[in-house]
Amino acid sequence: MNDATQYNATNLSILEGLDAVRKRPGMYIGTTGTLGLMHCLWEIIDNSVDEALAGFCTAITVTLYPDGSIEVADNGRGIPVDIEPKTKLSGVELVLTRLHAGAKFGNNTYQSTGGLHGVGLSVVNALSSRLHVEVDRNGNTYSMDFHNGQPGTYTDANDLTPTTHFKKTRKGQPTALHVVPLPANHVDQTGTRIHYWLDHDIFDRHAHFDTELLLKHIQQTAFLVKNLTITLRDLRDNTLQETCFHYDGGTQDFVRHLAQTDTPLTDIWHIEDTGTYSEEEQILDPTTNTLITQEVECSCTVDVSLCWVKGYTSKIRSFVNAIETPNGGTHVDGFLSSLTKQIRKTLNDHKKLFKNAFKNSDQKIERTDITSGLIAVISLYMQEPQFQGQTKDALGTPQIRHVMADLTDHSMSSILNTDKKKDLDHLMPLLEKIVNEMQARLKAHQAKEITRRKNIIETSAMPAKLSDCLPGNDDISELFIVEGDSALGTAKAARNSTFQALLPIRGKILNVRKASQTQILNNAECSAIIQVIGGGAGTDFDLSKARYDKIIMMTDADVDGAHIRILLLTLFYRYMKPLIEEGHVYAAVPPLHRITLAGSHKGEVLYTYSEEELGDKLSSLDQQKITYNPDIQRYKGLGEMDASQLAETTMDPRTRLLRRIRLTDAERAEEIFELLMGNKVPPRKQYIIDNADAFDRAKIDY
After folding, report:
1. Residues 355 and 418 in one domain
2. pTM, whole model, 2 decimals?
3. Which residue in 201, 414, 589, 663 could disulfide with 657, CB within 3.0 to 4.6 Å?
4. What pLDDT is recorded for position 454?
5. Distance CA 423, CA 270 (A)
6. Cβ neighbours around 388 below 10 Å, total
7. Sign of the CA dihedral 222, 228, 229, 230?
8. What pLDDT does 305 receive?
9. Is residue 1 included in any domain, yes or no?
10. What is the radius of gyration, based on Cα positions, of the chain?
């Protein structure tokens, strides 16, 4: 029987060197299937591409051999062959046997690189049954062999299969490089050749090299890196099949290639610019040999080409330092957010041409409308990119979102704000396409919502006190949460039942900050609000399922009304937070006073919203010698208004005033909600004492 005494230090294991990679390969290459196999190849190719980006490599050759091995050769500077002082290992052995070893850790050897983690070569070596490396430098060819990641020598140097006898270097001892002089006519030749056989004891038996995927990868790399020639030599059928890629047009050629089967709608637009940002980096202090934090000013280069086609499928390809980021990241987010903003601005500048499409102020262009038919290649070059994981599927550097947005703003503003006839001939069809996409989306959403609302009403009885609006106007529908039955009666007569629904509540609802989830669900008012809104509650809340576009708190303009609004906001913040985050929660702003004019202005009415505003308004009328009824009506509640007054001042979208509730600082809002509505009384009491002198009593009326 196991107990704690049987678990001690002898049960602990230490995986040294590359053993951890062989034990847990998925941590480094994602999978041991075909994609992992291809990822190993990307790591080797990307190292050669980094040399091209640094300006030292013009040609890369990938060779597939009949025995399943692969060789990647480049004419870059070659891996350093001299001795690294700290480890006493040659540069070749160091980068192939030590994780996180390389020239990409902030020493300015590379201005932009995809292999910044320093594990690519060593991981491939660890997962290879054999790896042979050759480096041309200094008029010589330096070579070394490895088996399962361990350096050593093969007894038969002419046999390059993994099955020959291998003599491993004694532990702790460096391995000498084999040196052969280059021919006299090649003494200036430089470059690196990595020839390896992946270990099929580690990889899945169904894993295989995907030639189509490989061709796609090297072609897109040739598009992105101008003046780089990449050649694929396939010898697997014992016959040479050679494919060569070289492009001078960069991302513009790439977009042209992606759009070749579609009918173009616009020209190819190109953005190329440089931006800067600050970030804190960990650098190695040579004096203490420890990592220190230092804020540095970084630069990045943006290279984006885009066009629209008449079809509806979008093709957005993104890259960082020539490494594809299939899941996008901050560079894509920044680009698309800016593009959306600029398209909206351009449509607003031409609103006379599209006035029939924007009859309702709530209708607006969304990102999906803009990306329909968009073909774009987003390429970014930067130092020290923060990828999300070793497989580099997405860029995570947060500062890049703002840099990309700013650069896109500047360039797209110049492109879209054109008065040249040639450019307008492309711009107008694009704007028409985007508007048509918006209208189609809204119609599809409306049809879906009509069906969904019908199903909800059929399957779940709404609270009897709900006065719902008609289905079919979900994009503009409004739910007024009304304080009291007296106000409800007036509101029913004042509302537009086509799109305005009413839900009355009885006074102050439950303070959900002090209640359990069971108490909340058992509370009639809270459960009714959650049910009527329809998006669920808590972590299960789904904004797309909410039945109304606006949630409007319509309470009296007094202290009790303000308290009710706070309680409602506490419910929304804790259990329906996306409503506030996305700007769907509003507070109605009913007036406090009604001034009836007399004399030549008889029949006219003015409303004011605070005591201060009332005083200013009366003073202004006196100065203008406009007479008014001195009996100023002071509304004590919404129920004192008749239907026409409530509609005019508080409910009619054409004349009312609404205050949108926004969550500009979630962390600060959480602190305030906890302080004012939480269980701890002493901090709340102290807050009131500390802020009593600064309190403005006039705010009670707001």
Report:
1. yes
2. 0.58
3. 589
4. 45
5. 14
6. 15
7. negative
8. 96
9. no
10. 34
